[in-house]
Amino acid sequence: MSQPTIDADAVMWSASEADRADRPLLVLLHGYGSHEGDLFGLAPSLPLEPVIASLRAPLVAPWPIDGWSWFPRDGEARPDRDTINASTDAVIGWLDDLTVQPTVVGLMGFSQGGAMTMQLMRRAPDRFDYGVVMAGFVCPDQEPGDAVLAERKPPIFWGRGTLDDVIPEAAIVRTTDWLTAHSTLSGRIYEGLGHGINQQAASDVRAFIQRQL
After folding, report:
1. Which of 7, 140, 151, 181 is surrounded by the fewest CB atoms within 10 Å?
2. Can you identify the CATH homologous superfamily of domain 8-212?
């Protein structure tokens, strides 16, 4: 089986290559069965300073889902470590190949993309400056970068809804414990919100990213 790669032609950018120099980068990572255009719709609600790049996950979600995934869905939020790390390595490889390298790199992911956000920070703790995790979870396996994050405690925003029935309770407890130990955690639990992002969450994310800049 070949290693997954990020389709550079599918990336949605908020700025042309000529306008990316000497600017921070915010990488958007969509959820299961979605696509690069999903989170990019939040771009008008996000700060103007960063260049935004919304990536398409490298795996085709199985029928009847019409979209893409970072790793197969198992229903328990416990993805295979090798599979998710193959996708994180694909994102890191895409970053390495950028002609214009950013001054700062932030990550924002929803659901599976939120898991990817934390896994990327664990795989390359020196590469990413902050993370936004919406309705996401941390993977259960230990990573070599965990010790670095536990010492450095980078800023991470974690938002989720009280009515989210997609992420299991065990994964929420695991994520709470991990984020408390490995990040400078901020975030919010949104009353009445299911597995999604509402206007208040978008506003909170904007304020969080603005503080990091």
Report:
1. 151
2. Alpha/Beta hydrolase fold, catalytic domain (3.40.50.1820)
